[in-house]
Specification:
signal; six-stranded antiparallel β-barrel; Thrombin, subunit H; alpha+beta
């Protein structure tokens, strides 16, 4: 009997030795974390702190939100459409092309019969976005005003004008419209944006470009206005003046092509002067890009908000850049 027990023990030892020689040991370490527990009748169990390491790491983990910019859609977001105010009175429309720069028509700054020689200064100007039309106290103050010289050696202006704001508009509430260099041709489809005089809503009107020569002849015959129809100007068909519809376009109204600003209305509507055809004159953005860059450089220089455009390497720009740098060094 004793011998049988010895044999069985030897057999089990042999089998166990074989398992050790041919097998692999896997070590696992389990860490036990101390979880202090306290009892407070005023606290619920859900308010107790879980001292588990994984729970603490998840609690202290900082979540980073990635900001993505949505594609601009002028039909759903019309905050780019603005009113130009002079001493709290609306004198024209415009478009927001950056967070602190507005483009409009120079014809907004003409004299009236009551005041034929007005003085326009940036300190008296402000800009009101279309989303704030009901709250005029939200108008943004201007810091600079850019008005080009007259065309064709005359004092009459047929161009754009720029207004720089004193502070950048909030990125979350206001969107500016991108620019396009495309110049539409006759019969091309475009979109006019204006404020309807009946509903007071910013309206989009689908229309087409008309022949420039025909438009020029019609203006000279009907409106009797000396318009310099240069290569950067073209005409767009407006609504017909009737009892059911009325034109509401003003100087500074934008023209849209593929969700981008293509032109600015120079003179506004003349629907009452036309019997059959009603046309508005626009100036293309393509021919104002250099002027926009210079105005932006001046704004950055005099406000100290950014560098000059590196594409400008003319002698005048280099001297201006050096002068501003020297003035900043002397200021400090």
């Amino acid at each position: 009997m004793f011998q049988d027990k010895v044999r069985l023990s030897l057999l089990l030892l042999t089998l166990y030795s074989c398992r050790l020689s041919h097998g692999m040991w896997e070590k696992r370490y389990y860490e036990n974390y101390h979880r202090p527990t306290y009892y407070n009748p005023h606290h619920k169990s859900g308010q107790h702190v879980d001292y588990n390491r994984q729970a603490l790491e998840e609690r202290d983990e900082v979540t980073t939100t990635v900001k993505t910019t949505t594609v601009f859609d002028f039909e759903s977001d019309k905050s780019f459409y603005v009113h130009i105010l002079h001493k709290a009175s609306v004198i024209g429309a415009g478009a927001l092309i950056s967070r602190r720069l507005v483009i409009t028509s120079a014809r907004c700054f003409l004299g009236t019969k009551v005041n034929p020689t007005p003085l326009f200064q940036a300190k008296d100007m402000s800009v009101l976005s279309s989303i704030d039309f009901a709250t005029p106290e939200k108008a943004s103050a201007a810091i600079a005003f850019y008005l080009p010289q007259g065309r064709n050696n005359s004092n009459d202006v047929h161009d754009i004008a720029l207004i720089a704001l004193a502070a950048k508009l909030d990125k979350g509430d206001y969107n500016y419209i991108p620019l396009t260099r495309k110049v539409p041709k006759a019969k091309d489809e475009v979109k006019m944006v204006f404020r309807d005089s009946y509903t007071y809503d910013v309206t989009v009107y689908n229309t087409k470009v008309v022949d420039t020569e025909r438009c020029q002849m019609l203006y000279e015959k009907t409106v009797h206005q000396n318009i310099a129809f240069d290569e950067e100007m073209f005409c767009v068909r407006n609504k017909k003046f009737s009892k059911k519809s009325v034109c509401s376009t003003r100087p500074g109204d934008p023209l849209i092509i593929n969700n981008k600003l293509a032109a600015i209305n120079i003179y506004g509507e003349h629907c009452e002067d036309f019997e059959n055809d009603s046309m508005d004159v626009y100036i293309s953005i393509k021919y104002t890009i250099k002027y926009l860059q210079r105005a932006t450089d001046l704004l950055r220089a005099f406000t100290g908000t950014g560098p000059f455009n590196p594409s400008f390497t003319t002698r005048r720009t280099i001297l201006l850049d050096a002068n501003v740098t020297e003035q900043r060094a002397l200021a400090f």
